[in-house]
Amino acid sequence: MGKRSSQRKNAAMLDSDDDNSSVSSTSTMRSDRMSVSGTEEVQLEKDTLLDEALDALYEKRGSTREKALSSIIEAFNNTLQHQFVEKKFATLLHQCLSSIKRGSSREIALASHAIGLLALTVGYGENSREILEESVAPISQALKSGFDSSKIASLLECLAVITFVGGNDPEETERTMQIMWQIVHPKLGSNVVAARPSAPIITAMVSAWSFLLTTMDGCSLDSKKWQQSISYFSTLLDKDDRSIRIAAGEALALILETGSLEKFSSEAKGSNDGSREEYIHLQGLKGKILNQVRNLSVEAGGKGSAKKDLTSQRNLFKDILEFLEYGYCPETSTKIGGESLKTSNWSQLIQLNFLKHFLGGGFVKHMQENEFLHDVFGFTPKRKYLSVAEHHVSSTDKRMYKSPNSVVNKARTQKLNKQRMLSEGRNVGHYAVNVDDDEV
After folding, report:
1. 226 φ/ψ angles, rounded to the nearest 5 degrees
2. Which of 68, 79, 181, 404 is the most exposed place for a label (fewest CB within 10 A)?
3. By C-alpha distance, which of 68, 127, 208, 150 is closest to 396?
4. Residues in domain Interferon-related developmental regulator N-terminal (predicted)?
């Protein structure tokens, strides 16, 4: 609108003898000023509502704080709240952390989601580092207090998102993944009996853990620790709950894509310290996983089984089977505002599915306007004009995205990992076809 009025103004100046053109130009400029004023009023009203919601987080009544958190989440989903965050970032973060420390299960779940949205909004930089550093301890503590599925799942998702955005090195990511792992494998004293986690909690843990694994270099993984995870995910493929099986299948596909299992097998095969048994065990585990995947890709389903869920499972495990046997990763394409968001490997697909689930109804809005997510997926949306918020943050955010720890560099690492895997002759495919051979 502004660009069009400027063009009309220039035309009027060049043709000053045309009174009608001058009148038209003046009218258009006045209209534009009213339009901008209206936009500012709408933004001011939204900021006022957010300010009121933030103030409500100080209230003693838990239901009032829950309502305020719901309003904040809705606002962050519907609009990129850069101006609000710039002014009230620290206050919002610490009030949400306060809710995690003292609130009900519902309040904790809402506050966790709000912190995750805050991290995605600020992107890379000092603010996301502060979110991670300030949040890990209270979130870890909250994970140990009770086993409400919704609360635990929200805490795990929040922990995954803030580490994904604010984590600077593999050690930080591994620390977070270990916290997640202890939800299903807690460290116990001699007189402590572990509570068995529910299916939703296991599913949330595996999904969050896999999401963070997408940022890791398989070559740097400790073989003993990661073999345990592979064995555990294999046992999950036999569970009755379909959501658990799907999450575990994606985790195994990702582990295989990083080349980790091949690395572990090669280490065991070439070792001189009596690891022959370990190598044989890994070969057997490979064969077991292949058979599990094949069976799940054609499962007939049980009584009362939801057809949609069954179809999703079959399609996923058909993709995994094709990957195991031939080395082909599934390719997807999602339309976002007329442009296609494409994935070509398991890492990208898992990131996309996780963030789509986390953002819910705000996914399309964030994919259109969130520069951090553009970096993550290498996505450039169609834009007729820049929003006020984007004009406002362009200069500050550009500094953030030039960080040597940016998602661009993480993506580059993932690409190199994929190229390495392909250059090794599609080892994953070879092992699937020659399970009984000694060749890896």
Report:
1. -80, -25
2. 404
3. 127
4. 24-325
How would you write the pLDDT of the chain (440 residues) with one tens digit per residue? 444 344 433 333 333 343 443 334 444 444 444 444 445 555 555 678 899 999 999 999 999 999 999 999 999 999 999 999 999 999 999 999 999 999 999 999 999 999 999 999 999 999 999 999 999 999 999 998 878 999 999 999 999 999 999 998 888 999 999 999 999 887 655 444 567 889 999 999 999 999 999 998 765 566 666 778 889 999 999 999 999 999 999 999 998 888 655 555 555 555 555 466 666 777 788 889 999 999 999 987 654 456 777 888 999 999 999 999 998 999 999 999 889 999 999 999 999 999 999 999 999 999 999 999 999 999 998 864 344 444 444 433 433 333 333 444 444 445 444 444 444 444 444 334 333 333 32
Tokens of 381: 């949306």
Distance CA 133, CA 93 (A): 11
Please tell me the total number of residues recorded for the chain in this structure: 440
Pairing of strands 332-336, 339-343: antiparallel
3-state secondary structure 302-334: CCCCCHHHHHHHHHHHHHHHHHHHHCCCCCEEE
235, 251 in Cβ contact below 8 A?
Answer: no
**Rounded Cα distance, 242 and 234, in Å:** 14
Token pair of 359, please? 């953002």
| Domain parsing of the chain, residue ranges | 2-37, 57-183, 196-440
Report pTM: 0.76
H helix or E strand, kind and range, residue 295? helix 276-296
Q: What share of the chain is helix, strand, coil (3-state, %, to 5)?
A: 75, 0, 25
Residue 44 CA to its chain's centroid (Å): 31
Gyration radius (Cα) of the chain, Å: 25
| CB-facing half-sphere around the CA of 435: CA atoms within 13 A | 13
- The whole-angstrom separation of Cα 361 and Cα 371 is 18
Determine phi and psi for 341, rounding to 5 degrees. Answer: -95, 115
Q: What does the block give as tokens for 13?
A: 């100046």
b/e for 333-357, b at 16 or more Cβ within 10 A? Answer: ebebeeeebebebbbbbbbbbbbee
What's the rounded Cα separation, in Å, for the pair 153 and 161? 12
Q: Where are the beta strands (DSSP E) in 71-197?
A: none
